[in-house]
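[job 0417] fold request received: Tripartite tricarboxylate transporter TctB family protein
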Amino acid sequence: MSNFIRNPKDFLSGLMFLGFGGGAIFLGQDYEVGQAIRMGPGYFPLVLGALLCLVGAACVARSLVLAGAPLEKLAFKPLILVVVSTLVFGVLLRNAGLLAALATSILISSLASSQFSKRTTALTIVLLTAFCYLVFLKGLGLPIPVLGPWLGG
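[job 0417] inference complete; emitting C-alpha cells
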C-alpha cells in the first residue's frame, strides 16, 4: 500500500463498498426510479447504491487520515467455507428442503470459526431452523418445502 494510505483495512473496505454501490447503481440504471411516494423498480438499487458509495467514500477518506493496523494475511479457509455454505444452501433448499439446507449450511459455516464447538453448532442448528420454520413457513406462508424430494418430501 502507498505511504499516503494510513489504514489499509479501511481503504480496502471503502473500495469494496464503492464497488458494490457503483455496481448496484449501474445494474439498476435501466429500471424506472419513480419517486419516494411511488417507488419504481429502480428506486431501491439507486438509493442503496448511493448509500453504499457514501459509506465507501467515508471509509476511503478515513483511511487517509486515521492510522490503523497493517493488513493481516487473508484467511482463505473461512472465506471459502462461508461461500460454499451459501452455495450449498441454494442448491439444497428446493431439493432437500428447508431443514436439511439450513442444517448443512450452518454446519459448514460453523467450521469456518476458530472456536468451533459441536454443542454450539447443534444448538444453533436447532434454534435457527425452528425460527426460520416459524417465520418463513408459518408466519409468511412461503412455499418452501420442509423436506424436499431428495428426502421424500
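[job 0417] notes: Residues 8-65 form one domain. Helices lie at 8-27, 43-65, 76-96, 98-110, 118-139.
[job 0417] exit 0
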